[in-house]
Amino acid sequence: MKQINSSRDLAVNGAEPAFSEPLHVGLPTVGDRELFLHYTEEILDRQWLTNNGPLVQTLEQRIAEYHDVSHCVAMCSGTVSLEIAIRALQLQGEVIIPSYTFVATAHALHWQAITPVFADIDPRTHNLDPDAVRRMITPRTTGIIGVHLWGRPAPVDELQAIADEHNLKLMFDAAHAFGASQGGTRIGSFGSCEILSFHATKFFHTLEGGAVLTNDDELAEAMRLMRNFGFCGVDNVIHPGTNGKMNEISAAMGLANLQSIEHVIEHNRHIYHAYRRSLEGVASVRLLEYDENETNNYQYIVLEVDEKSGVARDEIVAALQAENVLARRYFWPGCHRLKPYLELYPNAGRFLVNSEKVSDRVIVMPTGPAMDEQKVDAVISVIRVLTGG
Ligand code: T4K
Q1: What distance in angstroms lies between residue 200's CA and the mean position of ligand 1's atoms?
Q2: What is the CATH number that goes with domain 7-11+261-327+366-387?
Q3: pLDDT grade for 25, boundaries at 50, 70 and 90
Q4: What pLDDT digit, counting tens, does each position of 106-117 carry?
Q5: Where are the alpha helices (DSSP H) in the chain?
């Protein structure tokens, strides 16, 4: 790892990159490797590989307990969890979501011929602005999907009040928020249901996978049927359905990762504080903070570049990438500026002012198992040199 003290040391100016190996935003954590291999042997011996196997059932029970909810319905991805939850809630017509989210939130609606209607975000939290949500309600609106972006919960009480007032369904995309709390309550109990992603890039993962958390017995039952073609027993199909099942190897990875989850969160908390310390005095860049009175998973390190700094966000990202720091511009450019939605709403930018501003200034930085304090300091030195901070 090379020290960067002046612009002459930057790889964009012809010097060697600071890091010989890439630093990823989403480098997967593998919890207890021995336990994973032990479960894998068990699966192969048992010859029960998928279709509601014993490890999937154990994982569901442990995740439900962890979030203090009645049901965890495991699925093959976060996106399919969204699609099935949307269908089980019988959403139709228009559903209000933020544009500033991963495109899966919008696609899960569009894929089912439901119109995603984008409401603006609060620039301080990056989550839905309740007043903007109110402005987007029409007679065709049937629901709201709040997103707990970066694992920081959306304004759950305000959104619930709007949903109650207008007789709308409310659910949450909690893909980033495994284990996070709001007002001391862990996510999983807000709205009708909340979906999780267990994709490999998440701090808790099952290779690919996801789940829906809910306290609603009927909803959970409908989703269990829907993820398995609507089968009730061997020959009896009582519900429309699809294949949303999680397999046993994924569940084994999940159980092995659960074993070390507190250690992983503590490491990510440590790295978050290292970024905080390292950024002291760098005026042109703000670190998005986690509320330390709540439970957080600290899996995203989110920086915002001040527009007045004189250095463009993309210039910083290019300089970091040249150093082998594979920082990301999540979730640029915002769903409404992506082809399927731009065609639907060519002028959406006019009322998604905060979404556009935020998506133009965010950089997501590497964290996770490969990071330590020295690497954080070296990464931030690139930004210091560039911005003169
Ligand atoms: N809702 C929200 C709010 C979401 O953020 C997501 C997913 C979903 C719903 C849908 O959940 P899933 O259906 O995916 O379960 C990644 C993930 O694929 C995606 O799961 C995630 N959000 C999104 C935020 O990030 P990309 O396109 O950035 O992935 P990719 O391949 O560029 O990888 C990111 C970084 O991780 C790269 O630096 C490479 C590194 N990486 C990746 C993989 C897969 C590794 O080092 N090892 C690996 O195995 O979407």
Answers
A1: 7
A2: 3.90.1150.10
A3: very high
A4: 999 999 999 999
A5: 33-46, 54-67, 78-88, 104-110, 130-135, 156-166, 217-226, 248-259, 261-278, 313-322, 339-344, 353-361, 373-387
